[in-house]
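Support request from a user on the community tier.

User writes: "When I paste my structure tokens into the form, the page sometimes reloads and wipes my input. The last time it worked, I copied everything first. Here is what I submitted, just in case something in the input itself triggers the reload:"
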């Protein structure tokens, strides 16, 4: 996140929505440790596909 000057506070809600589909959830760090890297990537890709109309 530092290479893009992004901060967690700017990513927390979009990331939370991508991971659990809601704005209310356990901490982002807890979600990341439970879902795992591959699961996170899949969920973000799924959300991006839904937003952009991709498959």
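"...and here is what came back when it finally went through:"
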């Amino acid at each position: 996140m530092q290479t893009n000057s992004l901060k967690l506070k700017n990513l927390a809600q979009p990331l939370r929505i991508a991971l659990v589909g809601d704005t209310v959830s356990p901490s982002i760090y807890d979600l990341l440790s439970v879902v795992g890297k591959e699961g996170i990537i899949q969920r973000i890709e799924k959300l991006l596909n839904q937003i952009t109309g991709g498959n």
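Agent notes: The reload is a front-end session timeout and is unrelated to the input. The mean pLDDT is 84. Residues 2-52 form one domain. Escalated to web team.
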